[in-house]
């Protein structure tokens, strides 16, 4: 979905920022895990699919 939105035109602003937030979240998770703290990597940010859905509705 991300690939499709990125290469088939200009993605919505919400999706763009959600993508950045997700990357930063993954970096934070990696740093937290590297320090030896247990963290669940299965938990994915909720705002990414919701923002994508928002953009799809907006651009439809």
From TrEMBL:
The chain crosses the membrane at residues 14-34, 41-59. Gene3D superfamilies: Ammonia/particulate methane monooxygenase, subunit A. Keywords: Membrane, Monooxygenase, Oxidoreductase, Transmembrane, Transmembrane helix. One of its GO terms (molecular function) is monooxygenase activity. This is Putative ammonia monooxygenase subunit A. It comes from uncultured crenarchaeote. The gene is amoA.
């Amino acid at each position: 979905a991300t690939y499709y939105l990125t290469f088939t035109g200009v993605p919505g602003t919400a999706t763009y920022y959600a993508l950045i937030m997700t990357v930063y979240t993954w970096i934070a998770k990696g740093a937290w895990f590297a320090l030896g703290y247990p963290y669940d990597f299965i938990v994915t940010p909720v705002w990414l699919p919701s923002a994508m859905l928002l953009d799809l509705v907006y651009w439809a």
